[in-house]
Amino acid sequence: MHNIIAFIIVFALNCIYYKPAFTVAMICFVLYIFYEYRKRNLKIPKMDAILKKSFWVFWLSVIVASFLVFDIESIKRAVEYVYWSLPFWMLIILGYNKNITKGLIIGLCISTLIVCAYGIYQQFFKDFLRIKSFYPSPNYLGTILAMLIPFLFMFILVVRQNIYKILLAVTLFLSIYCIYFTQSRGALLGLACGILFYLFYVSWCKKVITKKFIALMIIFCSLCGAYFVYTPNIMRSYDMQRIYILQGSINMWKDHKLVGVGLGNFAEYYQNKYILPQATERDMDKSHNIVTAFLAETGTIGAIGFIIMNLGIFYFVLKNLRRNIQNYILGAFLICFIALNIHGMVDSTFNYQAINRLFWGLLGIGYLYKE
């Protein structure tokens, strides 16, 4: 039963084509927890203190900033950041009481295969130059896959049953194929940086750099370089527009330094006051940089909270990974975390519900394997 619940939760994280999916997952989780509680089998895990504090700093900072703006919609959006973290709590409670590895693997694979299948359908039957599957843009699909690929690969190293290895390998191959054809430079660069940092950190912890490691690094860097050199249209006409949006976001923050303009109000302020004269993309509703997005909408208070949360998570992962450098699942989250943050420097990431919720779910999976 516990693996079925784990499957439903993880599957729902990628199931944006059926909106009530996560609501169904929550109902199943609550019923299961009530059942375990009645049997007196339920145990609540003790949270890492630094991680818990960093979460609360972020949540309180965006809520306080929204209250100070006196905007009801902004307050609702701030509370949503707490709500989006539910997959983390659901998975660590479920996994603390039972081994849910099978449910996690099947949920990740089936949901990712559906997303990839629709993306490939778009490529071959709808002539999409950049596939996006069920997501609003190719960059969102790229971010999702950049977060999932490390887990698909690392679970191959962890799981013993060949049937699961095959399922993971097929899903991994299709995910790599699809992320390439999203042509999302930010997602690919983020994934590459995450892998490089992980390899360097492993080598640093082991205090040895082997010939195998050097060869692997050379091959990997060569492949990354080849992609950015030989991929057509690697430089795009709208690249300069991103700079204009960034400057407009900074100007917005300068006028509302403490609490910003309110969550969800970026489009109104940007289009009416802060868009630069030379900017041609005049209907932007988000800053294409996650830090300036929080600066513009939640001011210095919210942005500092966001940065503190990220530093807390980063410290937690590095600390526990150093204790056991062969903890592949926590290593997968490290790659995922860096990929998300690197891509967040050039696009909207953490403030998109599907990406945010998946992030918390993957953090929950990483937390389960922290020992």
Describe this protein with a few key phrases.
371 residues; mainly alpha; 15 helices
Mass-distribution shape:
globular
Mean pLDDT: 88
The major beta sheet can be summarized as: none
Distance between the termini: 24 Å
Q: What kind of assembly state do the chains in view correspond to?
A: single chain
Proportion of residues in β-strands: under 5%
Order of helices and strands: HHHHHHHHHHHHHHH
Fraction in helix: over 70%
Low-confidence stretches: none
Radius of gyration over all CA atoms, rounded: 21 Å
List the total number of helices.
15
Question: In terms of structural class, how would the helical and strand content be classed?
Answer: mainly alpha
Summarize the structure.
The protein is mostly helical and 371 residues long.
Notes on the protein architecture:
The protein is mainly α and 371 residues long. Helix content is 74%, strand content 0%. The chain has 15 helices and no strands. It has helices at residues 2-13, 21-38, 49-69, 72-83, 86-97, 101-125, 138-158, 162-182, 185-206, 211-230, 239-255, 266-274, 290-323, 328-343, 353-368. Helix 7 (138-158) packs antiparallel against helix 14 and helix 14 (328-343) packs antiparallel against helix 15 (353-368).
Give a topology summary:
Elements: H1 2-13, H2 21-38, H3 49-69, H4 72-83, H5 86-97, H6 101-125, H7 138-158, H8 162-182, H9 185-206, H10 211-230, H11 239-255, H12 266-274, H13 290-323, H14 328-343, H15 353-368
